[in-house]
Specification:
This protein is an alpha+beta fold. It contains eight helices and twelve strands. The chain has two domains: about 170 residues; about 140 residues, Glucose Permease (Domain IIA).
């Protein structure tokens, strides 16, 4: 009896500690988003660069960095040669010295130093780098290209800024399953399987089999980047999300009437319906059973590559059913 009581107490203690730890982690996560937003708004007031562009740059860089490292409040990493100036080997943080070497580092918190590890200094510096080209959307697009010199990076940052601007928030973590769960469907892990049409190739996604007309939904917050016919995918849609991930929906029978390229979407938005289009010229259908091909592609800032969506689909399916 005593042993059972001790075990019960230990289990209760463990559960209480686990609950407290989980609550503390959630509070920490919420507070870091609050801190970020406050810094973005402050920098907007100082530079007139809209906060959602600064947030999108920070978000892009965070999702190209090593996820095993502790999460920073601000993850923008401005190269030393840009911050301190070429030839400034001492990397002295005094603003006057940095300006002497044509460095971009700025003092954002009024302490007289331009510290590349200080969140306020980083954002103020990035705001001023953008402001060199002007404050309009076109100006900022040019500034981003001159800074990153990569079209996909510029496009991703622009898309993310549109999402943040629309929802007036940066803590957007909801997800949904890509087909309506109140319809009949089935799927297995088919990523990496062989496909023969058009030559031997690897299957870069998961096939979710469902009846014709089953609603297809956005799994995430993002922007519609691609629509139209593809020889392999038939009628397909590509959505770029705020985590540098491209979501690819293929073999659809058609699109939602009001869907268009450049549109901001959220989890659960209906994109169209399941079909069996593809493997031929526009309009080809019925060469395989109706299903949705769902693929995910990660951009690490240098390359874009396919990865297995199956574990994420299982997780989102559980979330959608709860």
């Amino acid at each position: 009896m005593v042993k059972k009581l001790i075990v019960s107490i230990l289990i209760l203690t463990f559960l209480c500690v686990s609950t407290v730890n989980a609550e503390e982690e959630n509070e920490d996560k919420e507070s870091i988003y609050d801190k970020r937003m406050a810094l973005f708004k402050k920098t907007e007031a100082l530079t007139q660069i809209p906060w959602y562009y600064l947030a999108a740059i920070d978000n892009f860089e965070r999702n190209t960095q090593d996820s095993s490292e502790p999460e920073k409040v601000i993850s923008i990493d401005i190269p030393s040669e840009i911050w301190f100036g070429i030839g400034n080997a001492s990397e002295y943080q005094g603003v006057e010295i940095i300006e002497m070497f044509d460095g971009k580092g700025k003092d954002g918190n009024g302490d007289g130093k331009a510290d590349p590890e200080d969140a306020e200094d980083i954002l103020f510096t990035m705001g001023n780098i953008l402001l060199e080209y002007g404050p309009t959307e076109d100006d900022i697009k040019i500034a981003l290209w001159n800074y990153y010199k990569r079209d996909l990076t510029v496009q991703t940052i622009k898309n993310t800024s549109k999402v943040f601007r629309k929802f007036k928030d940066i803590n957007l973590t909801d997800r949904d399953f890509p087909v309506a769960i109140n319809y009949n469907y089935s799927y297995n892990n088919t990523w990496g399987d062989r496909r023969g049409f058009g030559g031997l190739r690897t299957h870069e996604g998961t096939d979710i089999f469902a009846d014709y007309g089953t609603p297809v939904k956005s799994t995430t917050y993002g922007v519609v980047e691609m629509m139209g016919w593809n020889l392999y995918g038939g009628w397909r849609i590509g959505i770029r999300d705020i985590y540098n991930i491209y979501h690819y929906y293929a073999h659809m029978s058609g699109y939602n009437d009001d869907l268009q390229i450049g549109q901001v979407v959220k989890p659960g938005d209906v994109l169209g319906s399941v079909g069996s289009t593809g493997y031929g010229p526009p309009g080809t259908s019925g060469k395989f059973p109706p299903h949705l091909h769902y693929g995910m592609y990660k951009d690490n800032g240098k390359n874009e590559f396919s990865f297995d969506p199956y574990p994420y689909l299982k997780k989102w399916e559980r979330m959608a059913k709860n």
